[in-house]
Amino acid sequence: MLSHLPQSFVAFATAFVLGTLIGAERQWRQRSAGLRTTVLVALGAAAFADLGIQLAGPEGSTRIVAYIVSGIGFLGAGVILKDGANIRGLNTAGTLWCSAAVGAFSGCGYPGQATLLTFFVLAGNTLLRPLVNYINRRPVDETSTEAQYTVHATCAPEDVPDVRDLLFDKLEAAHYPVREVAVLTESDDLVELGATLVASSAAAGELDQVVTTLEKSPAVKTATWTASTVT
Fold it and tell me: Which residues cross the membrane (predicted)?
C-alpha cells in the first residue's frame, strides 16, 4: 500500500484545496456549514473512495461512492431547519452533497473533473445569486405562481367546530378543495383557523369572495387569505 501513497496524497490535497474553495464561499456568507465542514466532507469522501480503490480496485471505489451518495444525505439533513412555513439550509445541504462529489472525484483519481465540478458549484452559489434576487423581488402572480394558499378565520373557542365546517363548505363551493384545517393560534377568547388549499394556483378575486362570505357569518370575527411560495 505504500506504493499508493503519492496517489493518495494527490487525491487528498486536491480534495482539501477544492473543498477549501467551496467552503470559503459558505463561510463568507456565514452559513451553518462553513469552511471546515465542507473541507472535511470533501476530504472524507476522497479518503473513502481512495481506500476502496486500494482494497478492491475500481469495483471497490464504485461501491464506496454509492455509500457516500446515500450517507452524505444524513449529514445534509442536519443543516436543514424548518422555521415556521419556511425551510432554511437546503442550499447548504446541496453544497455539502456537491462537496462530497468533489471529494469522490478526487479520491477516484479524477482531479480535472473535481476541479470542473468545483467551478460549477461556486458558480451556482455566486453567479446565480443576482438572478435569484431578481426573481424574488418580482411581485407574486397568483394566477401563474405555484404557491400554498391558506384561508384564515378567527372566532371564539366555542365556535371552532362551526367555523371549521364553514371553511370547508365555502371553499368546496368555490371549487377549492381543502387539504387540512389547522389551529394556527389560540388564546382564551380567540382562535385562528387556517384552511390550506389543495390547489397550487388560485384566482385572487375568487378567494376574496370566499373571505367576504366568511365575514358575513356571525361566528367569524375576521377572515383573510395568504399565499406563500412552495419550498
Answer: 6-25, 37-58, 64-81
User: What pLDDT was estimated at residue 76?
Assistant: 74
Return the CATH number of 147-229, one of 3.30.70.260, 3.40.50.300, 3.30.565.10, 3.40.50.1820: 3.30.70.260
- Specify the amino acid at residue 148: Q
Confidence of residue 60 (pLDDT cuts 50, 70, 90): confident
Residue corresponding to grid cell 452559489 = 125
**Residue ranges of the domains in the chain?**
2-136, 147-229
The pLDDT of 57-71, averaged and rounded, is 81
Instruction: Categorize the per-residue pLDDT at 207 as very low, low, confident or very high, splitting at 50, 70 and 90.
Output: very high
Distance (Å, rounded) from C-alpha 43 to C-alpha 79? Answer: 19
Q: What DSSP string describes 40-105?
A: HHHHHHHHHHHHHHHHHHHHHHHHHHHHHHHHHHHHHHTT-EEETTEEE-HHHHHHHHHHHHHHHH
Task: Tell me the β-bridge partners of 147.
Answer: 229
**Biggest CA pair distance of the chain:** 84
Torsions phi, psi for 179 (to 5 deg): -75, -45
The reported pTM is: 0.58
